[in-house]
Design goal:
Oligomer: single chain
Bound molecules: S-adenosylmethionine
Number of helices: 9
CATH class: Alpha Beta
Order of helices and strands: EEHHHEHEHEHHEHHE
Number of domains: 1
CATH topology: Rossmann fold
Shape: globular
Radius of gyration: 19 Å
Number of strands: 7
CATH architecture: 3-Layer(aba) Sandwich
Helix content: 25-40%
Structural class: alpha/beta
Protein backbone atom coordinates (compact mmCIF):
# COMPACT_ATOMS: atom_id res chain seq x y z
CA UNK A 1 0.00 0.00 0.00
CA UNK A 2 1.20 3.48 -0.80
CA UNK A 3 0.16 6.76 0.70
CA UNK A 4 0.98 9.91 -1.16
CA UNK A 5 0.16 12.84 0.99
CA UNK A 6 -0.24 16.25 -0.54
CA UNK A 7 0.49 19.58 1.11
CA UNK A 8 -1.84 20.80 3.82
CA UNK A 9 -1.57 24.35 2.50
CA UNK A 10 -5.10 24.20 1.09
CA UNK A 11 -6.45 23.03 4.46
CA UNK A 12 -7.26 19.58 3.11
CA UNK A 13 -4.98 16.58 3.06
CA UNK A 14 -5.23 14.46 -0.04
CA UNK A 15 -4.03 10.91 0.44
CA UNK A 16 -3.57 8.70 -2.59
CA UNK A 17 -3.35 5.01 -1.76
CA UNK A 18 -1.76 3.37 -4.74
CA UNK A 19 -1.49 -0.34 -5.46
CA UNK A 20 -1.39 -2.57 -8.51
CA UNK A 21 -3.61 -5.22 -6.92
CA UNK A 22 -6.92 -4.49 -5.18
CA UNK A 23 -6.10 -5.34 -1.57
CA UNK A 24 -8.27 -3.13 0.56
CA UNK A 25 -11.58 -1.41 1.07
CA UNK A 26 -11.27 2.23 2.02
CA UNK A 27 -13.39 2.69 5.08
CA UNK A 28 -13.93 5.98 6.93
CA UNK A 29 -14.29 4.10 10.25
CA UNK A 30 -10.88 2.51 9.76
CA UNK A 31 -9.33 5.97 9.29
CA UNK A 32 -11.10 7.23 12.42
CA UNK A 33 -9.93 4.22 14.44
CA UNK A 34 -6.35 4.62 13.16
CA UNK A 35 -6.30 8.25 14.30
CA UNK A 36 -7.65 7.23 17.72
CA UNK A 37 -5.08 4.42 18.02
CA UNK A 38 -2.28 6.84 17.14
CA UNK A 39 -3.43 9.40 19.71
CA UNK A 40 -3.58 6.65 22.35
CA UNK A 41 -0.22 5.13 21.49
CA UNK A 42 2.60 5.59 24.05
CA UNK A 43 5.13 5.93 21.19
CA UNK A 44 3.11 8.80 19.74
CA UNK A 45 2.98 10.45 23.19
CA UNK A 46 6.77 10.26 23.37
CA UNK A 47 7.08 11.85 19.92
CA UNK A 48 4.65 14.60 20.90
CA UNK A 49 6.64 15.28 24.07
CA UNK A 50 9.87 15.57 22.11
CA UNK A 51 8.37 17.51 19.19
CA UNK A 52 5.15 19.20 20.35
CA UNK A 53 2.83 20.00 17.46
CA UNK A 54 -0.60 21.38 18.43
CA UNK A 55 -1.82 21.32 14.87
CA UNK A 56 -1.10 17.61 14.59
CA UNK A 57 -3.03 16.93 17.85
CA UNK A 58 -5.98 19.01 16.72
CA UNK A 59 -6.12 17.47 13.28
CA UNK A 60 -5.81 13.90 14.53
CA UNK A 61 -8.39 14.64 17.25
CA UNK A 62 -10.82 15.95 14.63
CA UNK A 63 -10.29 12.85 12.48
CA UNK A 64 -10.72 10.56 15.51
CA UNK A 65 -14.01 12.28 16.42
CA UNK A 66 -15.25 11.99 12.84
CA UNK A 67 -15.30 15.78 12.37
CA UNK A 68 -12.69 15.79 9.64
CA UNK A 69 -12.25 13.35 6.83
CA UNK A 70 -9.37 13.71 4.40
CA UNK A 71 -9.65 13.37 0.67
CA UNK A 72 -8.64 9.70 0.43
CA UNK A 73 -8.36 8.14 -3.01
CA UNK A 74 -7.61 4.49 -3.66
CA UNK A 75 -6.00 3.93 -7.04
CA UNK A 76 -5.37 0.44 -8.34
CA UNK A 77 -3.46 0.90 -11.57
CA UNK A 78 0.02 0.66 -13.12
CA UNK A 79 2.29 3.53 -12.14
CA UNK A 80 2.36 5.08 -15.65
CA UNK A 81 -1.44 5.46 -15.45
CA UNK A 82 -1.20 7.14 -12.05
CA UNK A 83 1.39 9.53 -13.46
CA UNK A 84 -0.63 10.20 -16.61
CA UNK A 85 -3.72 11.04 -14.54
CA UNK A 86 -1.74 13.98 -13.10
CA UNK A 87 -3.30 13.83 -9.64
CA UNK A 88 -0.11 12.77 -7.88
CA UNK A 89 2.17 15.64 -8.83
CA UNK A 90 4.20 17.52 -6.20
CA UNK A 91 3.67 14.97 -3.49
CA UNK A 92 4.72 15.96 0.04
CA UNK A 93 5.19 12.49 1.50
CA UNK A 94 5.65 9.10 -0.10
CA UNK A 95 5.27 6.21 2.30
CA UNK A 96 5.45 2.48 1.81
CA UNK A 97 5.59 -0.60 3.97
CA UNK A 98 6.96 -3.89 2.62
CA UNK A 99 6.03 -3.20 -0.98
CA UNK A 100 9.10 -1.92 -2.86
CA UNK A 101 10.69 -5.36 -2.84
CA UNK A 102 7.73 -6.53 -4.94
CA UNK A 103 8.42 -4.10 -7.78
CA UNK A 104 10.29 -5.72 -10.62
CA UNK A 105 11.38 -2.61 -12.54
CA UNK A 106 12.47 -0.96 -9.35
CA UNK A 107 14.90 1.53 -10.93
CA UNK A 108 12.09 2.87 -13.14
CA UNK A 109 9.78 2.96 -10.14
CA UNK A 110 12.23 4.98 -8.03
CA UNK A 111 12.86 7.48 -10.83
CA UNK A 112 9.13 7.91 -11.38
CA UNK A 113 8.14 8.25 -7.74
CA UNK A 114 11.01 10.65 -7.01
CA UNK A 115 9.87 12.64 -10.06
CA UNK A 116 6.41 12.96 -8.47
CA UNK A 117 7.84 14.20 -5.17
CA UNK A 118 8.13 17.90 -4.67
CA UNK A 119 11.46 19.47 -3.70
CA UNK A 120 11.80 19.16 0.06
CA UNK A 121 9.19 16.36 0.09
CA UNK A 122 9.67 13.31 2.29
CA UNK A 123 10.06 9.61 1.73
CA UNK A 124 9.60 6.93 4.37
CA UNK A 125 9.94 3.31 3.34
CA UNK A 126 10.32 -0.06 4.95
CA UNK A 127 11.76 -2.55 2.47
CA UNK A 128 11.60 -6.24 3.28
CA UNK A 129 14.84 -7.82 2.01
CA UNK A 130 14.28 -11.42 3.05
CA UNK A 131 13.50 -14.22 0.68
CA UNK A 132 9.70 -14.41 0.92
CA UNK A 133 9.56 -18.20 0.69
CA UNK A 134 12.42 -19.31 2.93
CA UNK A 135 12.48 -16.38 5.32
CA UNK A 136 13.26 -18.55 8.36
CA UNK A 137 15.55 -21.21 6.94
CA UNK A 138 17.48 -19.31 4.24
CA UNK A 139 16.65 -15.62 4.09
CA UNK A 140 18.90 -15.06 1.03
CA UNK A 141 17.79 -18.09 -0.95
CA UNK A 142 16.86 -15.83 -3.90
CA UNK A 143 20.49 -14.70 -4.22
CA UNK A 144 21.59 -18.21 -5.13
CA UNK A 145 19.88 -18.09 -8.52
CA UNK A 146 21.65 -17.02 -11.71
CA UNK A 147 20.23 -13.87 -13.34
CA UNK A 148 18.69 -15.83 -16.19
CA UNK A 149 17.31 -18.53 -13.87
CA UNK A 150 15.73 -15.90 -11.66
CA UNK A 151 14.32 -14.01 -14.63
CA UNK A 152 12.66 -16.95 -16.36
CA UNK A 153 11.13 -18.36 -13.18
CA UNK A 154 10.09 -15.17 -11.42
CA UNK A 155 9.55 -12.47 -14.01
CA UNK A 156 5.92 -13.30 -14.69
CA UNK A 157 4.88 -14.15 -11.16
CA UNK A 158 2.79 -11.26 -9.81
CA UNK A 159 4.42 -9.72 -6.76
CA UNK A 160 7.68 -11.72 -7.09
CA UNK A 161 10.46 -9.92 -5.27
CA UNK A 162 13.35 -8.12 -6.91
CA UNK A 163 16.88 -8.73 -5.60
CA UNK A 164 18.08 -5.24 -4.75
CA UNK A 165 19.99 -5.12 -1.48
CA UNK A 166 19.93 -2.27 1.03
CA UNK A 167 23.09 -0.68 -0.37
CA UNK A 168 21.71 -0.88 -3.93
CA UNK A 169 18.65 1.13 -2.91
CA UNK A 170 20.64 3.67 -0.93
CA UNK A 171 23.23 4.28 -3.62
CA UNK A 172 20.54 4.60 -6.27
CA UNK A 173 18.42 6.99 -4.22
CA UNK A 174 21.35 9.26 -3.42
CA UNK A 175 22.18 9.45 -7.13
CA UNK A 176 18.52 10.02 -8.04
CA UNK A 177 18.21 13.10 -5.85
CA UNK A 178 17.15 11.93 -2.40
CA UNK A 179 19.16 12.80 0.66
CA UNK A 180 19.00 9.86 3.04
CA UNK A 181 18.48 11.11 6.58
CA UNK A 182 18.11 7.80 8.31
CA UNK A 183 18.73 4.20 7.30
CA UNK A 184 18.08 1.60 9.92
CA UNK A 185 18.87 -2.00 9.07
CA UNK A 186 17.54 -5.19 10.57
CA UNK A 187 20.20 -7.84 10.35
CA UNK A 188 20.66 -11.50 11.15
CA UNK A 189 23.74 -12.63 13.05
CA UNK A 190 25.09 -15.09 10.52
CA UNK A 191 24.78 -15.96 6.87
CA UNK A 192 22.49 -18.97 6.41
CA UNK A 193 24.61 -20.47 3.62
CA UNK A 194 28.30 -20.40 2.64
CA UNK A 195 29.25 -17.55 0.31
CA UNK A 196 30.18 -20.10 -2.36
CA UNK A 197 26.46 -20.88 -2.78
CA UNK A 198 25.58 -17.26 -3.51
CA UNK A 199 25.50 -16.38 -7.21
CA UNK A 200 28.62 -14.50 -8.27
CA UNK A 201 26.53 -11.41 -8.98
CA UNK A 202 26.00 -11.02 -5.23
CA UNK A 203 28.88 -13.02 -3.77
CA UNK A 204 31.20 -10.10 -3.14
CA UNK A 205 28.63 -7.90 -1.40
CA UNK A 206 29.47 -6.67 2.08
CA UNK A 207 28.64 -9.18 4.76
CA UNK A 208 26.32 -6.68 6.47
CA UNK A 209 24.46 -6.12 3.20
CA UNK A 210 23.94 -9.85 2.83
CA UNK A 211 22.77 -10.20 6.44
CA UNK A 212 20.32 -7.29 6.17
CA UNK A 213 16.75 -8.57 6.15
CA UNK A 214 14.92 -5.23 6.18
CA UNK A 215 15.66 -1.55 6.00
CA UNK A 216 13.74 1.50 7.20
CA UNK A 217 14.65 4.59 5.19
CA UNK A 218 13.77 8.23 5.70
CA UNK A 219 14.86 10.62 2.98
CA UNK A 220 14.11 14.06 1.63
CA UNK A 221 14.11 15.18 -1.98
CA UNK A 222 16.86 17.62 -2.78
CA UNK A 223 15.85 20.87 -4.34
CA UNK A 224 15.19 24.50 -3.58
CA UNK A 225 14.03 23.75 -0.05
CA UNK A 226 16.96 21.42 0.64
CA UNK A 227 20.36 22.71 -0.40
CA UNK A 228 22.86 20.62 1.57
CA UNK A 229 24.77 17.93 -0.30
CA UNK A 230 23.21 14.55 -1.04
CA UNK A 231 24.71 11.34 0.14
CA UNK A 232 24.37 7.87 1.38
CA UNK A 233 25.00 6.25 4.73
CA UNK A 234 28.82 6.11 4.68
CA UNK A 235 28.72 2.72 6.32
CA UNK A 236 27.10 1.22 3.23
CA UNK A 237 29.09 0.51 0.12
CA UNK A 238 27.26 0.86 -3.17
CA UNK A 239 27.51 -1.25 -6.28
CA UNK A 240 26.80 1.23 -9.04
CA UNK A 241 28.04 -0.94 -11.89
CA UNK A 242 26.43 -4.10 -10.69
CA UNK A 243 22.86 -3.27 -9.86
CA UNK A 244 20.89 -6.43 -9.53
CA UNK A 245 17.56 -5.32 -10.93
CA UNK A 246 15.96 -8.68 -10.89
C1 LIG B 1 3.60 -7.68 1.33
S1 LIG B 1 2.28 -6.65 0.81
C2 LIG B 1 2.41 -5.36 1.99
C3 LIG B 1 1.08 -4.74 2.23
C4 LIG B 1 1.02 -3.70 3.38
N1 LIG B 1 1.84 -2.56 3.08
C5 LIG B 1 1.43 -4.33 4.67
O1 LIG B 1 2.48 -3.97 5.21
O2 LIG B 1 0.70 -5.18 5.16
C6 LIG B 1 2.96 -5.99 -0.69
C7 LIG B 1 2.11 -4.92 -1.35
O3 LIG B 1 2.82 -4.48 -2.53
C8 LIG B 1 1.90 -4.45 -3.60
N2 LIG B 1 2.62 -4.65 -4.86
C9 LIG B 1 3.00 -5.81 -5.43
N3 LIG B 1 3.62 -5.60 -6.61
C10 LIG B 1 3.63 -4.27 -6.79
C11 LIG B 1 4.11 -3.43 -7.83
N4 LIG B 1 4.70 -3.91 -8.91
N5 LIG B 1 3.93 -2.10 -7.71
C12 LIG B 1 3.32 -1.59 -6.61
N6 LIG B 1 2.88 -2.32 -5.57
C13 LIG B 1 3.01 -3.65 -5.67
C14 LIG B 1 0.93 -5.57 -3.31
O4 LIG B 1 -0.27 -5.45 -4.02
C15 LIG B 1 0.76 -5.41 -1.80
O5 LIG B 1 -0.23 -4.47 -1.50
Amino acid sequence: MWALNHSRAAGMVTVILWDVFPNMIVDANAVQEAARALLDSPVFHDVQKALPDDRMDQTLGAVARGELLGDIRYRVQPLPELIAAGEANDVTLVYSQSAIECIWNVADFWRAIIGLTKAGGWHSHRIDLSDHGRRETNYIEMLEWSPIGYYVTMRFIPGAINRWRASTHMTFLAEAGLKILSASRETREVLPIPRSRINRMFRSLDEVDLRTTAIDLVAVKQGKRQTSGGGVDPGCRGHPKDRPYS
